[in-house]
């Protein structure tokens, strides 16, 4: 069994597995930015294939997309032009001045340690202009308090891309000591290629913990809720206002850097 990250190593396959033809995530971010009158300069940290960055660019914003994966960045430049795409680590970055930092699809939760979270938030604080926004979307650590439905049984999924059928089997486990949600995903395909095992983890952040971290770095939380959002069921709809609870499995954050 070979090791790797099948989806991030093959961005076209990633978009096939997670289609977003209506640019729901990008539209949700733009709605947040407009609601709080954010300026035009946006940094999309963990931009992946560039779909959301390109949507924000099409809305008239000046966008920089940043990612660790060179494969993703090359794909973004070719398939979703408009933004500037740069290689950067969300644990610490210096990419210029922005009016908003966006971090979607649990990218923020790749900050596994407190030092890494501090590095990300320090970098955001230094990148943002006074009154700038941090907009993020991620898993909700609080969901796993007393719930095991996502842990009890492996999840299987399948899809077909360019004539090849792909199947995944995903197992989630909670590492309580490290406060991480660990994921093991095994991919198989009907083209004769060997199975690929992918291991990754997200930090389990709890809503009040997140509020405390943001306040310590000079941010005021404007919104923190479990939906509606681009990955909730039912999904967010145009101009739908944010909720008030933080009980479901996704968290949606809008925070403003305090003005001096």
Residue fraction in strands: 25-35%
Briefly note the structural class of the backbone.
Answer: alpha/beta
Q: Which strand order do you get reading across the main beta sheet?
A: 4-3-2-5-6-12-11
What is the domain tally?
A: 2
The CATH topology label of the largest domain is Rossmann fold
Structure described in brief:
The chain has 260 residues and is α/β, with parallel strands linked by helices. The protein has helices at 6-9, 11-17, 24-35, 51-58, 70-79, 114-127, 207-216; strands at 2-3, 41-45, 62-67, 84-87, 98-103, 128-139, 155-161, 164-175, 180-189, 196-203, 219-225, 250-257. The strands form 2 sheets. It has a 7-stranded mixed sheet, sandwiched between helices.
Question: What would you say this structure looks like, in words?
Answer:
The protein has helices at residues 6-9, 11-17, 24-35, 51-58, 70-79, 114-127, 207-216; strands at residues 2-3, 41-45, 62-67, 84-87, 98-103, 128-139, 155-161, 164-175, 180-189, 196-203, 219-225, 250-257. It has a seven-stranded mixed sheet, with helices on both faces. Strands 1-10-9-8-7 form a five-stranded mixed sheet, covered by helices on one side. The longest helix is centred in the middle third of the chain and has 14 residues, at 114-127. It has two domains: 2-142 and 205-257, Vaccinia Virus protein VP39 (Rossmann fold, 3-Layer(aba) Sandwich); 144-202, GSPII I/J protein-like (Pantoate--beta-alanine Ligase, Chain: A,domain 2). A hairpin with a 6-residue loop joins strand 9 and strand 10. The relative contact order is 0.16. Helix 3 packs across helix 4. It has seven helices and twelve strands. The chain is globular and about 55 Å long. By secondary structure, the chain is α/β, with parallel strands linked by helices.
């Amino acid at each position: 069994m070979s090791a790797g990250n099948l989806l991030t190593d093959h961005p076209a396959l990633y978009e096939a597995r997670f289609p977003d033809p209506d640019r729901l995530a990008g539209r949700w971010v733009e709605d947040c930015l407009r609601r709080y009158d954010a300026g035009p300069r946006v940094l999309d940290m963990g931009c992946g294939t560039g779909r959301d960055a390109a949507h924000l660019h099409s809305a008239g914003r000046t966008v920089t997309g940043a990612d660790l994966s060179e494969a993703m960045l090359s794909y973004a430049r070719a398939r979703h032009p408009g933004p500037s795409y740069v290689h950067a680590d969300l644990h610490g970055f210096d990419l210029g001045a922005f009016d908003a930092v966006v971090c979607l699809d649990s990218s923020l939760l790749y900050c596994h340690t407190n030092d890494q979270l501090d590095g990300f938030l320090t970098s955001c604080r230094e990148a943002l202009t006074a009154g700038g926004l941090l907009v993020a979307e991620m898993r909700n650590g609080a969901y796993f308090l007393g719930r095991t439905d996502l842990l009890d049984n492996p999840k299987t999924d399948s899809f077909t891309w360019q004539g090849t059928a792909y199947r995944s089997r995903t197992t989630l486990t909670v590492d309580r000591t490290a406060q991480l949600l660990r994921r093991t995903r095994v991919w198989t395909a009907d083209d004769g290629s060997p199975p690929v095992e992918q291991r990754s983890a997200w930090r389990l952040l709890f809503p009040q913990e997140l509020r405390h971290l943001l306040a310590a770095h000079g941010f005021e939380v404007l919104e923190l809720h479990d939906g509606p959002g681009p990955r909730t069921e039912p999904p967010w709809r145009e101009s739908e206002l944010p909720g008030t609870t933080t009980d479901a499995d996704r968290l949606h954050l809008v925070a403003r850097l305090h003005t001096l």
